[in-house]
Amino acid sequence: MNLFMTIMTPIILLAFGVSLVYYLVIFPREKDERRSRILQIASEKAYLVLVFSIAVCILLGRIPSLSFEGETFKNGIVLCIAISGIVYSGITVYYNRKI
């Protein structure tokens, strides 16, 4: 599983870096209802993804035939957080172009 995190760490850092650059450069700077609505929608969806994915990790940890514990469980939680951040960024980009 160490190879998994060796590959995932640069991908996660790249995704968060790209989302940070997008937020600082392209996202609207003026504080208006549009910006607030976009961030609210993105936060709601990303939170739902995070809760659902952590629940799946916990359920997988409860199945005795799977060895989803310890380091593997920690990697799963990190992956859940990363997926939630990527969903947040993706929804922000999508709604920024749509609205």
UniProtKB/TrEMBL annotation:
Membrane-spanning parts: 6-25, 46-64, 76-95
UniProt superkingdom: Bacteria
Keywords, comma-separated and alphabetical: Membrane, Transmembrane, Transmembrane helix
Name of the protein in its database record: DUF2178 domain-containing protein
